[in-house]
## 1
Amino acid sequence: MSERHTDGVGAVRRYLLDAAGPDRTERANRHLAVLLALIAGMLNSVGFVAVSVYTSHMTGLVASVADHLVLGSYAVVRVGIAAIVAFVTGAGVCAILFNWARRRELRSRYANVLVLEAVLVLVFGGLAGRLTWSHRTWVYITVLGFTMGLQNAIITKISQAQIRTTHVTRMITDIGIELGKLVYRNRLTGVDPVRADLGKLRMLSSIVGAFFAGSLLGAGGYLRFGFPVLVAPSLLLLVAAAPTVIADVRGDHSAPSTQR
């Protein structure tokens, strides 16, 4: 094997270990956030096309539960509550897995949650279309809601609450703020000038763009292939997260972290 090839393999291995590893960089956070936003967009759209529920949209779900409770549409209320409970449960499980690994100083404190998400989506994508149970819609809602809760919680941990891949409202709001700063004319002297954070603007725009692209792929892919459209993104996420878990299995632990 040539030295150049060996260096290339080593660089790929280091990149994959850093992708979901505990030592975060802006570049690693950005790449992972874009990947997770793409997957979130796909899951959200597949959920809507399949069962008419946006499983990542907690604001809309809470409002929908309240509205339909007043209107007496209790079937819709039950669906909304199931999605909300599943999302909250997913976020709670993320906190349990993360802190279990953190207290043991494992590299996989983030990766273990992402591997769980990847496996859930992989199994769901492969088997959901084969369900014939009359109440299978409840399986779709709970699995997708749980996965969205897992993902939103872990990217919140990774980015220290700066990024949420399913919370597009916040990201678009921040984009608007940075655009306002960008066009602001600093006429006064002697005061701190207003400057846009172009790095933040690029990152947020890329995440929103990835979510939009994932939504297109999810809706179009589901109409063409059904639930198996989710197999490919789940494998991609597994490739990104599994090397860090494998490193822990082999005993390659990271330094302690103070994150909670």
## 2
Amino acid sequence: MNWSQYAVIITGLFAILNPIGAIPVFLDLTTDQDESERKRTAMITSIAVALILMLSAWLGDSILSFFGISIDAFRVGGGILILLMAVDMMHARPSRAKRTDEEHEEAQDKDSVAIVPLAIPLLAGPGAISTVILDAHTLGGVTERIVLTLIIVGMAGTVWLALYLATPISAWLGKTGKNILVRLMGLILMAIAVEFIVTGTKAMWG
């Protein structure tokens, strides 16, 4: 692995976590919380995101082996899932692969929304978990996975910062600015998804 490949991993993970796109949902679900409670929710959410993705990075291969799923089949399946998410992002709309309207309505009645639905499935959802498992498999070595773990911690820190500053970021970007960023992230995800699908298909049928 060289630094350009790590840069691709960082960019892809940031795009699929999409912390900027999560800000409106975060503000909506924490509307009844005061500032200190909202900051605590942001911290718990970011910690949960880090733990979920780190477990995926270190245990993903074992889980796939347990269910008898080849990494190439998983790469194609994950690529399709990410592609569907990317299409929704290109239209600047919430992806139902991350959450449904029913889940959102149910979350309104919960006392704590930090872990469910904010951490999972909104941020560290199926797409992010799939991406981390595939990245970890590609890296292979222990040292490289440690670097991936550090990247995950950094991305969780980015999630915390985005949610911590959710109100000023939302006011500064406005709806148009947020939609532009979400569409840009969707374009990056679409390219990643196509790469996953093509690579997995070639390995399976080549």
## 3
Amino acid sequence: MQDKQFEKQNVFGKGSENTAYAQYFTGNSYLNPLTSPACKPFFANVTFEPGCRNNWHVHRAAKGGGQLLLCVAGSGWYQEWGKPARSLAPGDVVEIPAGVKHWHGAKKDSWFSHIAAELPGEGTSTEWLEPVSAQEYDTLEK
């Protein structure tokens, strides 16, 4: 997808470079908070450059919690540990229960944006794990 076409589709905006979490990403990502961090649930538009993905991670919670992804622009991937990767496009919704090891990001040839919502719960945290290897990522088809 061309950059201008993507920017037109990405109605929530690219935001600023995601420097606070850069250590947990392969490639560059951008963050545009849509609500204040005090708002529960907190919503942010996360944009991934082509080939960018986050590390494997788990949203922990003693009760409730998890994450919701609302895909808004471009083309991406979502994968749970031990399962095949799922192709993502605008309009797709991904429900991620607490305790599920997963990753998400852009396809090699496309920018990708999703609204990420941190679901309310008790004792919530994110455990960042190992990067998705180039070997794992390169086996994914378009």
## 4
Amino acid sequence: MSNINIRVLPVGELQANCYILNLDASDKAVLVDPGDDVSLIKRTLSSVSLTPECILLTHGHFDHMLGAAHLKEAFGARVFIHEKDAVYLSDRKYNLCPDADADKFIPIAPDGYIAQGEFEAAGIRFTVIPTPGHTPGGVCLYLKDSNALLSGDTLFSNGFGRTDFIGGSWMDLFQSLKTLFELPPETQIFPGHGAGAPIGDIRKGFYR
């Protein structure tokens, strides 16, 4: 089985983690949450000779999707998001894009939706885990064979996502966290901001 390479690029003023994933010996890639700094993302892709096949968004806040339209135009990569967050791609009221970044925001419609179950792109098979709470359509992307979870803004190494934005729900997030904590403890999280950690260690912090 080919190894999955996971590269992380903190982008934008909020330093959201954009992830570039590809299989060994493949020049096709998946971008997860390209929030800003499109030039940096393009340079990084070029430096490792990768072309993005699709763009997966863990949720619709601007710091995770601002570059999606630009990269779709540049590479023809298809954009996927959970259906409940689709409106975030076209409405600044939902995605919280500040006036300072308004010139970078290009409203787009998703090319398709990601929902609970399996999703494959660039030869990589993701298990999509719906994790509403931070937003109604938040998802985490689980790579079982790699013991890895791209957790977006649902779960961080030292906390969890806010629920006071439009569409947020603490009760939904609480249930989402319970679902994630059922994953194997050695699962390494790759969060939407900051450094990762094994989910078992994070769980201990919640249940001390």
